[in-house]
Amino acid sequence: MKKVLIAEDSSVIQNLAKKILEFQNFEIHSVKNGQQVLDALEKEQFDILLLDINMPVMDGMECAKAVRSLPEPEKANLPMIAITGNARNYSMEDFKEAGFNDFLAKPLNFDALVAQVKALTE
Q1: Strands (E), the chain
Q2: Which range of residues forms the domain containing residue 99?
Q3: Strand blocks (E) in 8-116
């Protein structure tokens, strides 16, 4: 079973994404900010990260850069999807520079979420 780590400070979005992805046989772990993502990665291995861009403590952009600079290649190269409520503030170029493989705009399109997660974890 593929393990997904979702970093999102909105419990509503976190719970919806979790339900949708669990239904697709993914194992979901949720945290509230980028620092917790880094803490979780120290303890466990995941197959993909979904990072909200606007989070307290450490935002998604900072977190993505931190993940990409981790010493272990299997963690540093994890697929990452940015989740953003203000996609207009960033271009795909910005996301790519931070290390993201793809991004999803809010309100989340759950079909797109499932499709991207599947594509990046196959």
Answers
A1: 2-7, 26-31, 48-52, 80-84, 102-105
A2: 2-121
A3: 26-31, 48-52, 80-84, 102-105
Report CA dihedral (29, 35, 38, 43) to the nearest 10 degrees: -60
Read off the amino acid at residue 73: P
Domain with residue 117: its CATH number is 3.40.50.2300
For the chain, the domain total comes to 1
For residue 102, give the nearest of 50, 24, 40 by alpha carbon.
Answer: 50
pLDDT digits (tens, 9 = 90+) for 17-69: 999 999 999 999 999 999 999 999 999 999 999 999 999 999 999 999 999 99
Q: Are 34 and 59 in contact (CB under 8 A)?
A: yes
